[in-house]
User: What shape does this take?
Amino acid sequence: MSLADDVRPTVAEPRPDCSLCPRLVMFRDENRRAHPDWYNGAVPSFGAETARLLIVGLAPGLKGANRTGRPFLGDFAGDLLYPSLIKAGLASGRHDPGAPEGLQLVDCMISNAVRCVPPANRPTGAEIATCRQFLIGRIAALPNLQAILALGRIAHDSTLAALGLKRRPYPFAHGARHQLDRGLVLFDSYHCSRQNTNTGRLTPAMFEAVLAGIAAELGLS
Ligand code: SF4
Assistant: This one.
């Protein structure tokens, strides 16, 4: 794995009560008061550390991962992501947000560029940069990693920065496949958010095609 010389791998997962981003801590606290039964913490990655594929989203959704404690579980984006993973052979079982134990990932892990829910789904540049230490740590702690799927431009840019790579040679584009160093490949997709599907920017067929291509490359289909 190629990590920048000036960034050191740190821990792969933040503590649930990580306090590095004051605005996000305040927002977590607000949500904890309003919804004490929700998870309301830094959301850990989901999947086995033997994974060959890392999927990087933007940040927990307020009523999705921030509520359930699992990336993408419980909101629209997850209702597109998880069934699409099953279709591609990157997960098995059944997607049911009320019974998440019925789904198992196949050779992949799901994480986020920012681990705490941001107001209006918009983390600041400083928050993205601060949380990158965990993305660096996450990548470094996946010994079999062969591919990363970035969901959206922010995930794409933060992944490149985590790897110590410049953006210019690897521009974000839906469906792009970027060959990086040492056999690692970065794939791009528009984020599977409700906003992107409502506007027609991303259709389920477009998303499934990206996942099918990755599964084929990993020999899983
Ligand atoms: S976003 Fe990341 S760095 Fe910021 S408080 Fe949450 S876990 Fe910590």
